[in-house]
């Protein structure tokens, strides 16, 4: 994972405007981005819309005091793990004891020199992120020992095609994207790309359930000589909708069946991004738009399929939504069209995967906001 | 996170007060949305006009809310979507799942 320097955001809450100004100046000088709120209510309003790396709050404030504010923060799952520091006076000793029950991580006396407050907060944020990293490392070690993967190590060799893929998990923690290549007979191969909605470990864990159902449906299909991707998706969707353990869990899926004998690729999609088709002869890209809904949405959903005959040099790009998300300054944006335009520039009648990979890597430094996966299928010209 | 704008006998008008609708706020959003459906037992017209970005975790929460509403024979109607977000919903076919209108007036006159 490429590391980027991120400015730490802190929220300062105090009804004393002068003290707020002094503190925020010192923090900004130390490289923090500061937001100041003159009441707990204003801070709560801010936290409804924005995130912060740490909160520094006064205890004694009119209306909602610091302890009540802390209770609110603890009651919100999205906020409860943010490092929280109380600003207190000597006379607030009793309060400090009460605050201990509220998991306040630290206290700072208001007459502490400002530079000490700054370095205390800095240390606290560092310790928090190190602790988080350590616990993630423990899970990573356990996962690696189990040797289970939702993305294969390498792409398979399939006659007449070159397959490549690129996958990067969000913040280096496995997420909801899953990839598989299944060669069922000499004639048929399947390409699977899915994205369980959600991020990190929970989505990663659930991706195995989806992947297992897809693998099973493909294999059962083979037993009854049923190779239609749309029919496979329909079955997988029904099973998922009736599986109580997957209640409210949704996943997109792109399923492609390569028929080597008939020289065609059949694609069916479930709430996935349209697959991009590069036509080598015309040197243009077009999209394959499926009408299928996300897996797990409605048991009665139906799926359609699109047949494509690939000529030499033609290519298909199959990708998840992480590929079209990017950060622009402080904002996150989604732009499918921009990514397709990029593919139009990158694709050439020769295998363009290396160019594609170079482009992706050049975009990665500050841009990644989710799991990213892309599969590239290239119809190789027959060698003479 | 979800502000109630108006209560009518047949529906609620609500406003999602979030700039980036992502994993960090998805669970809380789902709890609030389901709470509104359970407490008021009526359709919700939800404005996303403040939302600039929406990720798949949040979309998952939104769809979970819709499924809850449908099970109660109610609905969640979306209004005020920015272009990027509307385009994304169309790309992944969620425009077939949610009723989408430009604003509250359009949505309520279609109810």
What attributes characterize this protein structure?
heterodimer, A: 384 residues, alpha+beta, Rossmann fold, Phosphatase 2c, domain 1, 2 domains, five-stranded parallel beta sheet, five-stranded antiparallel beta sheet, 9 helices, 36% helix, 26% strand, elongated, disordered N terminus, B: 111 residues, alpha/beta, Transcription Regulator spoIIAA, two-stranded parallel ribbon, 4 helices, 25% strand, STAS_dom_sf (chain B), STAS domain-containing protein (chain B), STAS_dom (chain B)
Quickly name the level 1 CATH class of the largest domain in chain A. Alpha Beta
Task: State the domain count of chain A.
Answer: 2
Secondary-structure element order of chain B, as H and E?
EEEHEEHEHEH
Report the biggest beta sheet of chain B as strand number plus sense, adding barrel if it closes: 5 strands, mixed
What is the β-strand count of chain A?
Answer: 17
Strand content of chain B: 25-35%
- Count of domain modules of chain B: 1
GO molecular function, one term (chain B): anti-sigma factor antagonist activity
Protein name (chain B): STAS domain-containing protein
InterPro entries (chain B): STAS_dom, STAS_dom_sf
Organism (chain B): Mucilaginibacter straminoryzae
């Amino acid at each position: 994972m490429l590391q980027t320097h991120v400015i730490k955001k802190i929220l300062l809450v105090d009804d004393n405007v002068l003290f707020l100004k002094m503190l925020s100046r010192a923090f900004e000088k130390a490289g923090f981005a500061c937001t100041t709120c003159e009441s707990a209510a204003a801070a709560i309003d801010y936290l409804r819309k924005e995130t912060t790396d740490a909160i520094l709050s006064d205890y004694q404030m009119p209306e909602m005091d610091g302890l009540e504010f802390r209770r609110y923060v603890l009651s919100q799952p999205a906020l409860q793990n943010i490092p929280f520091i109380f600003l207190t006076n000597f006379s607030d000793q009793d309060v400090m004891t009460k605050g201990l029950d509220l998991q306040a991580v630290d206290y700072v006396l208001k007459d502490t020199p400002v530079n000490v407050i700054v370095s205390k907060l800095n240390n606290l944020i560092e310790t928090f992120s190190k602790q988080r990293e350590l616990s993630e490392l423990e899970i990573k070690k356990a996962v690696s020992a189990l040797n289970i993967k939702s993305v294969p190590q390498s792409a398979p060799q399939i006659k007449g095609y070159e397959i490549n893929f690129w996958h990067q998990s969000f913040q280096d923690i496995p997420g909801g994207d899953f990839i598989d290549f299944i060669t069922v007979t000499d004639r048929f191969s399947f390409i699977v790309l899915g994205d369980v909605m959600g991020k990190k470990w929970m989505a990663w864990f659930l991706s195995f359930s989806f992947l297992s159902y897809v693998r099973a449906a493909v294999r059962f299909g083979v037993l009854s000589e049923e190779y239609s991707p749309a029919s496979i998706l329909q079955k997988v969707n029904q099973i998922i909708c009736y599986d109580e353990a997957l209640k409210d869990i949704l996943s997109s899926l792109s399923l492609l069946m390569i028929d080597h004998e008939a020289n065609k690729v059949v694609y069916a999609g479930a709430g996935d991004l349209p697959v991009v088709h590069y036509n080598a002869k015309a040197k243009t890209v077009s999209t394959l738009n499926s009408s299928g809904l996300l897996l797990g949405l409605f048991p009665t959903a139906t799926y359609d399929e699109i047949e494509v005959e690939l000529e030499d040099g033609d290519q298909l790009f199959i990708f998840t939504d992480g590929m079209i998300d990017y950060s622009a300054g402080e904002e996150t944006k989604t732009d499918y069209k921009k990514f397709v335009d990029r593919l139009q520039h990158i694709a050439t009648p020769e295998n363009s995967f290396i160019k594609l990979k170079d482009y992706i890597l050049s975009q990665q430094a500050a841009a990644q906001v989710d799991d990213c996966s892309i599969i590239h299928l290239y119809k190789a010209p027959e060698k003479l | 996170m979800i502000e109630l704008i108006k209560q009518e006998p047949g529906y609620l008008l609500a406003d999602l007060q979030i700039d980036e609708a992502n994993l960090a706020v998805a669970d809380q959003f789902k709890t609030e949305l389901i709470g509104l459906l359970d407490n008021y037992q009526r359709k919700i017209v939800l404005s996303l006009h403040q939302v600039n970005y929406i990720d798949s975790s949040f979309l998952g929460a939104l769809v979970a809310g819709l499924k809850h509403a449908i099970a109660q024979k109610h609905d969640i109607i979306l209004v005020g979507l920015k272009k990027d977000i509307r385009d994304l919903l169309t790309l992944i076919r969620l425009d077939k799942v949610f009723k989408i209108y430009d604003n509250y007036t359009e949505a309520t006159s279609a109810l």
